[in-house]
Amino acid sequence: MNEFDLIRRYFAGRGVRRADVPLGIGDDAALLAPPAGQTLATTVDTLHSGVHFAADIPPADLGHKALAVNLSDLAAMGAEPAWATLALSLPEADEAWLGAFADGFFALAERFGVQLVGGDTTRGPLSVAVQVQGFVPADAALRRSGARSGDHVFVTGHLGDAGAGLAIEQGRLALSGPPAAALLARLHRPTPRIGAGLALRGLASAAIDVSDGLAQDLGHILAASGVGAVLEADALPLSDALLASGIERPWRLAAAAGDDYELCFTAPADAAPGVADALDCPVTRIGHITAEPGLRWRDTAGQVVEPPPRGWDHFARDEA
Ligand code: ADP
Ligand code: MG
Fold first, then answer.
1. Nearest atom of ligand 1 to the alpha carbon of 29
2. Which of 219, 308, 307, 206 is nearest to 263 (CA)?
3. How many Å separate Cα 39 from the centre of its chain?
4. Positions of E strands within the chain
5. Nearest-CA neighbor of 62 among 71, 70, 53?
6. Which of 16, 211, 262, 293 is most enclosed, with most CB atoms within 10 A?
7. Ligand of minimum distance to the alpha carbon of 101
8. Could you read off the pLDDT of 14-25 as tens digits, one per residue?
């Protein structure tokens, strides 16, 4: 099977066909027709074997995740997904692997109406780069820079699940049964919060997706907005699976671990009561924005608590 057979067999002519794609896979470049009055939101993320995923990851999970992490960036901008390109570097053309990878990719692409319009296929160490484009009116995009003192801070879904899943995968956390399966699924099959991102247009003052951990990612909003925040450690939304994992002080994992791909956003106090009804997923208020810079943590009694670590290597030390 040569490169062109591979593209034809696994990637060309599959999935949704959008009216705004006059020419998709097959020529030197795709021709795309963005709608009038919208701006293009574009983002790319590369996943390397051994760095961003374990080499033995089920290929369908990798196909899903490579697209999901990019759609999550569009969600965080309040953009509506439209197009994707896929650059694949493969050590060999393993047909079973490619079939499963493409199935995982296209299942998620179809769910969000995304058309694969081009890409690149090369031989080399396993890596996957997906670029996605979506539409958003320029003045409706959710930026990192809009948080203001007094705004409330929210997060969708649950935090820490993917971090616990990673600990299981790496043998740092001994857990089996349904909770382990649920945590691993959150690591391998994140759900991009596209519906929430669209609903937050005109409602959120700033947004980011939680890819590197809440503390770090909210830190980007705080820096871009020139503000600080107080978060309530006990308010962080924890899943039943995480609570069943036996991890001590799970809020610290929820605050520090990455890969959950939830949205963290801020909204003005007068808009905050409407947030839960506007979203198609669970959402939790976890704190508020302050004029004083920096991120501070409190417990329910308002007492200062020790800040969580930043990043999963610190988590590894915690668990050791
Ligand atoms: P060129 O050499 O002109 O860049 P290629 O031979 O790399 O073209 O690719 C031929 C066509 O197949 C192009 O339309 C390209 O976008 C598409 N393509 C290549 N690899 C992939 C892939 N992994 N997924 C989707 N489309 C791909
Ligand atoms: Mg060419």
1. 14
2. 206
3. 21
4. 39-48, 80-90, 115-123, 127-136, 152-156, 206-209, 228-232, 263-267, 283-290, 294-298
5. 53
6. 262
7. 1
8. 999 999 999 999
d(CA 68, CA 131): 11
- Considering every ligand atom, which ligand is closest to the CA of 30? 1
For residue 105, the model assigns a pLDDT of 98
**Distance from residue 19's CA to the centre of ligand 2 (Å):** 24
- Structure tokens belonging to residue 11: 């990637």
- Which residues sit opposite 81 in a β-bridge? 134
Q: Whose CA is nearest to atom 18 of ligand 1?
A: 119
Is this prediction's pTM over 0.90?
yes
- For residues 189 and 63, is the Cβ–Cβ distance under 8 A? no
List the residue whose alpha carbon is closest to atom 11 of ligand 1: 26
Rounded Cα–Cα distance for residues 130 and 84 (Å): 7
Task: Give the model confidence (pLDDT) of 40-70 as tens digits.
Answer: 999 999 999 999 999 999 999 999 999 999 9
> 116: Cβ below 6 Å to ligand 1?
yes
The pick from 5, 101, 120 for probing ligand 1's pocket by mutation, whose C-beta has the most ligand atoms within 8 angstroms, reads: 120
- Lowest average pLDDT, out of 12-26, 73-87, 233-247, 294-308, goes to 294-308
Q: Does any ligand 1 atom lie closer than 6 A to the CB of residue 27?
A: yes
- Ligand 1, atom 3, lies closest to the CA of 28
